[in-house]
């Protein structure tokens, strides 16, 4: 299991972003504390910041730092190595502090995490705010949370994929949103 934040976020701060196997069942962990660094706490998936994003204090827990990424400045993070999600359950989660929540037609996305495998159809994973709601996409099977995020307050978002049960669910502040059973069992995203 894994965590990353490859971000093209609109007016948003993120703090302590992580990915791990559901239920803590082994697997790889990645943790971004954003304490004045874009690096993975474990040193495996260090990020590179583009266009000078700022670190702001305090973070989501009233201590430490968060990274502020502004779309108006084209700020984002990128990670060089891909995470292997082949036949793996995973959770991607983040504490976010949106300075604004956008809605639009057909939609407005604030990407928190994205990983793609070239241009191969259905081999991507995203976690984002889409029109102000938590939105997860894995293998072109998308789930959306029912709760609108609020501007100017810390909120927790998560997206889980259970390989064995072939289900994915989004969460907002620990409350499950929509979940679906998906038909792609032999996932190839790696």
Automatic annotation (TrEMBL):
This is LamG domain-containing protein. It holds the Pfam family Laminin_G_3. Gene3D superfamilies: 2.60.120.200. InterPro entries: ConA-like_dom_sf (IPR013320).
């Amino acid at each position: 299991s894994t965590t990353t934040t490859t971000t093209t976020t609109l007016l948003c701060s993120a703090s302590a972003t992580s990915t791990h196997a559901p239920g803590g069942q082994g697997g790889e962990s990645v943790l971004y504390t954003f304490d004045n660094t874009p690096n993975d706490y474990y040193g495996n998936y260090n990020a590179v910041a583009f266009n000078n994003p700022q670190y702001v204090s305090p973070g989501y827990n009233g201590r430490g730092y968060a990274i502020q990424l502004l779309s108006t400045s084209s700020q984002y993070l990128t990670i060089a190595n891909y995470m292997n999600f082949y036949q793996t359950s995973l959770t991607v989660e983040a504490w976010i502090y949106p300075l604004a929540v956008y809605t639009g037609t057909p939609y407005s996305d604030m990407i928190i995490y994205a990983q793609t495998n070239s241009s191969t159809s259905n081999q991507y994973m995203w976690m984002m705010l889409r029109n102000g709601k938590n939105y997860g996409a894995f293998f072109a099977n998308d789930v959306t949370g029912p709760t609108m995020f609020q501007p100017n307050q810390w909120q927790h978002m998560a997206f889980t994929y259970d390989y064995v049960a072939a289900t994915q669910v989004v969460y907002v502040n620990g409350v499950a949103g929509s979940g679906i059973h998906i038909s792609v069992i032999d996932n190839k995203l790696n």
